Amino acid sequence: MFKQIFSSFLFALFMLECGAQNSFSLIDKWLQDNIHEIGGRAVVMIWKDGKVLYSHTENNLNVRERMGVKWYSKKQGKEINDEMQDFNLNTQKPIASCSKWLSAALIMTFIQEGKLSLEDTIGKYLPIMSVHKKGQIQIKDCLSHLTGIKSPSLKESISQQQEYTSMDEAIESIAKMPTESKHGKSFHYSNVGLQIAGAIIEKIAGQSFESLFQQRIAIPCGMNNTTFGDRRVASPAGGAVGSATDYLQFLSMLLNGGNYNGKQVLSQTSINSMQQNYAKDVAVAYTPDEASNWGYGFGEWVIEEGKERANAISSPGLFGTFPWIDNKLGYAAILFSTNLHFKGRNERYTQLKWIVDKAIGIR
């Protein structure tokens, strides 16, 4: 607590001294000071009032980080030289759980078209779930991690996902998982809810999840470097790859009432529904440390609650990318990185957002 107060005091002095025209200087400094805590290379971008106000890239891999990149590249069967190239605004990387925000938005397009209802039960579309007494789980439970299903660990989930040969196989596996509570009564952050919802929209539309994502989210938002891939089984909760620029365009769409360059992707009603805290007043079975004090909406964490919608929301990923929107200050931002340092993430994210809030507020 003392560190936070002292940091706030130093920042206030800094802002008074620097003035508005240099109000983003402390973000540069934060990146430089924290670069080896967030993987050695990163991008920060900020959007407000129809334009990118700030973009900065740091590329400063140390020897250990370079070895890590080479090891990962070799494991993935990629060209090491390509992987060693500088990070930039359009670098395409796995974004892990940042995918959840994209997938929830895609599913909401079916809700607003009346092709699906938040109150629909999953057994209506996936009979196997009813066979295993999970048919009464609702779509809204799937989007907010309130299914009541006791999912395996993250490591086990990733391993299982890679082994599935069809979406039906993935759903059958989930149907056989144990339950830990009645649906809607406990929060367990996992991949299962969005996998179920993803399977349902595939059945409704008769198309793959990737095709639906491209048609309804990526193309309208100009996200040319974002995809869930061509695997037989998409992973709606963590399988996307994308870039900082693409994700910021998605965030700007949400901040702009669902409109991107004249294309209405989502309605404001859909966005408001996504940005409520549905994890309030329920038991918490599991939540990751980096978001331990946040609520949860549809595919996104609620950092700070509001009235009609949350004041601030985010959907950070396993590999260190942290996108967020601040509705009060009217801006969207993203920290895009490849980082497996978990210790202190929440504190770093909170600090970075606080710095950006102050920079936006003083302009």
N- to C-terminal distance: 27 Å
Query: Low-confidence stretches at least 5 residues in length (pLDDT < 50)?
Result: 1-6, 13-21
On the 0-100 scale, what is the average pLDDT? 90
Order of helices and strands: HHEEHHEHHHHHEHHEHEEHEEEEEEH
In CATH's first tier, which class of the domain at 94-239 and 260-281 applies? Alpha Beta
Q: What percentage of residues falls in helices of 4 or more residues?
A: 40-55%
Tell me what you see in this structure:
With 363 residues, the protein is of the alpha+beta class. It has a domain at 94-239 and 260-281: Beta-lactamase (3-Layer(aba) Sandwich), CATH 3.40.710. 41% of the residues lie in helices and 15% in strands. It has 14 helices and 13 strands. The protein has helices spanning 2-18, 25-34, 63-76, 80-83, 99-112, 127-131, 139-143, 154-163, 167-175, 192-205, 209-218, 244-255, 268-274, 345-362; strands at 41-48, 51-59, 93-94, 186-188, 241-242, 259-260, 263-264, 283-286, 295-296, 301-304, 312-314, 322-326, 331-337. The strands form four sheets. Strands 2-1-13-12-11-10-9 form a seven-stranded antiparallel sheet, with helices on both faces. A two-stranded antiparallel ribbon has the order 3-5. Strand 6 and strand 7 (263-264) form a beta hairpin. Helix 5 (99-112) crosses helix 11 (209-218) and helix 9 crosses helix 10.
